[in-house]
TrEMBL record:
Record-given protein name: Short-chain dehydrogenase
InterPro entries in the cross-refs: NAD(P)-bd_dom_sf, SDR_fam
Organismal lineage: Bacteria, Pseudomonadati, Pseudomonadota, Alphaproteobacteria, Hyphomicrobiales
GO MF annotations in UniProt: oxidoreductase activity, acting on the CH-OH group of donors, NAD or NADP as acceptor
Family: Belongs to the short-chain dehydrogenases/reductases (SDR) family.
CDD domains xrefs: SDR_c
Pfam families in UniProt: adh_short
Length: 275
């Protein structure tokens, strides 16, 4: 498989955690990386790490909920770095914990807006240009609650399930034009977001299972999802476009299972038993 030399990847939420690791993996594979987040110092640090390894990157502070800011930011990326080959939506927010009547409504809606609306804004901007070129890949990160109930994380779960369905709809719309969309679940990774769940009273009260999982040493390295996404960018899993791939899984085993996944119509949101 070819490396990513000469391609441009955009990584949102690239200032820390999983996003930083994704950006580093893209650069190590040869891609130039545009690193996006609201915090300029954090994304500048990611860029410095990439450049320190001999890679190419540039920081773009953008609030993904602000449509005008997204449009201006992506116009700058294309003007300064060229056409986008791989769009990776890693940004995420999970601040509203608990039964819905105990959640702050603005925090609950903020999780949905950042996660889902932010993803919509970036895809809306990049997809037409990719279609015009006849190629491109979009990777949207999902997570807890995508395919199962998450009672005390309803805003986060609703947004991630929404991103999964959005990814399916997007892929079905763009795949005839050569643009493929994928969903990736990185697994439980110890990040600043999960640390907040561990360190706040609401998190300890309503999400005690997170602490238990970490105590049980369920802690997926962010490099797992980053390596998977690098393989997606290379085209290794093109046949699974529109479906969910998981960071913790063995990529060689996943490749061997592609035919079975497609035959079973797996890794997608489906409602069964309605015949």
């Amino acid at each position: 498989m070819a490396d990513l030399q000469g391609t441009l990847a955009v990584v949102t939420g690239g200032g820390r955690g999983i996003g930083r690791e994704i950006a580093l993996h893209q650069a190590r594979a040869g891609a130039t990386v545009a690193v996006l987040a609201r915090s300029a110092p954090q994304i500048e640090e990611t860029v410095a790490l990439i450049e320190g390894e001999g890679g190419k990157a540039r920081a773009y502070p953008v609030d993904l909920v602000d449509r005008s800011a997204v449009e201006a930011g992506f116009a700058a990326i294309v003007s300064e770095l060229g056409p986008i080959d791989c769009m990776i939506n890693n940004h995420g927010s999970f601040r509203a914990f608990g039964p819905i009547w105990e959640c702050d409504p603005d925090e609950w809606w903020g999780d949905v807006e950042i996660n889902l609306r932010g993803c919509f804004h970036t895809c809306r901007v990049v997809a037409p240009a990719m279609l015009e070129r006849g190629r491109g890949r979009i990777v949207n990160l999902v997570g807890g609650g995508t395919g199962t109930s998450f009672p005390h994380g309803s805003g986060y779960a609703a947004s991630k399930a929404g991103i999964m369905r959005f990814t399916e709809c997007l892929n079905d719309t763009t795949v005839p034009g050569g643009v493929l969309a994928f969903a990736v679940d990185p697994g439980l990774v110890r990040t600043a977001m999960t640390e907040m769940q561990l360190d706040t009273e609401a998190g300890r009260t309503f999400l005690p299972g997170i602490q238990q999982l970490f105590e049980d040493k369920i802690n997926v390295p962010p490099s797992k999802a980053a390596a998977l996404i690098a393989d997606i960018a290379r085209g290794r899993f093109d046949r699974l476009a529109g479906r969910m791939l998981r960071g913790p899984e063995d990529r060689d085993a996943l490749e061997r299972e592609i035919d079975a996944i497609i035959a079973d119509d797996g890794r997608a949101l489906r409602i069964t038993g309605l015949d």
